[in-house]
Design a protein that fits this description.
single chain, 266 residues, mainly alpha
């Protein structure tokens, strides 16, 4: 694959990611990681590090897109900063631990783990379960522990964490709008420290391609972020014109397909 073709491929991943984020309200890691895991080996990147680069780059892209989301939610006064502060230590520690754990796993093992997780999330989206609000008080210990688990899993897999954070906050009785806004705020430190952990974990690896800082690949990051931030508003407009339940099931099918693809190539 030529350099020009690679650039268009990264931009294409960004467009699909932005549209999906606007349409379905779910972070792009579920799409970015499998797309880059397929693309990078075709650019000559060693298979041993391609999945690690895909996850680290996904987290890096989430850092930049999360900033604008957090600011928008904060302007509407929807972020529960008190809950954010309770979750923050766990999110940071979990994200760093997730990056370290990912570095201990071989590429095929990481691919299988991600593929299995995508199948679970896809099945969850297709089932459209309802989380019963108010089942548990949002205590400091619960949010701290939950933040640690969410940080570890999200950094390990290169996702923003909203898929896990929103149900936890709803279960703690947080209204849906505040749960989504607070999850967006939690995604920022999670992705920031997760990406930093991947940079440190991969620093000096002889298999890394030019343009990589540890397990973060800047050419892909730039193309994805530019295109996704441009496409996200269009996805949001389309979301208002299409039935939400059908959109959620459609995305569930896409995620199941991507998860099966990751497993089949492991």
């Amino acid at each position: 694959m030529s350099v020009l073709a690679a650039l268009f491929a990264f931009l294409g991943v960004g467009v699909v990611t932005g549209l999906s984020a606007g349409l379905f309200g779910i972070g792009g890691g579920l799409l970015i990681v499998p797309a880059l895991s397929w693309l990078l080996p075709r650019l000559g990147v060693a298979p041993e590090v391609s999945v690690h680069l895909a996850i680290g780059t996904s987290l890096g892209s989430i850092v930049l897109t999360a900033v604008s989301a957090v600011l928008a939610h904060h302007r509407h006064g929807a972020v529960r900063w008190d809950l954010f502060r309770r979750m923050l230590p766990g999110l940071v520690a979990g994200a760093l631990a997730g990056a370290w754990l990912a570095d201990q796993l071989p590429g095929d093992g990481l691919r299988r783990l991600f593929g299995g997780f995508e199948l679970l999330i896809g099945a969850w989206l297709l089932a459209s379960p309802r989380v019963h609000a108010g089942a548990q008080a949002a205590g400091r210990w619960l949010l701290g522990l939950g933040g640690g688990v969410i940080g570890l899993v999200s950094a390990l897999l290169g996702i923003g964490g909203g898929t896990l954070t929103v149900p936890l906050l709803l279960w703690c009785g947080v209204p849906a709008q505040q749960a989504v806004a607070t999850a967006s705020a939690c995604g920022l430190p999670l992705a920031l420290f997760g990406a930093l952990g991947f940079v440190l974990a991969g620093w000096g690896d002889a298999l890394l391609p030019p343009g990589a800082s540890g397990y973060l690949y800047w050419p892909a990051l730039g193309g994805i972020v530019i295109a996704s931030m441009t496409a996200a508003p269009l996805g949001a407009r389309l979301a208002h014109a299409l039935p939400g339940a059908r959109l959620k099931r459609l995305f569930g099918l896409v995620v199941v397909g991507l998860g099966a693809g990751m497993l089949s190539h492991a």
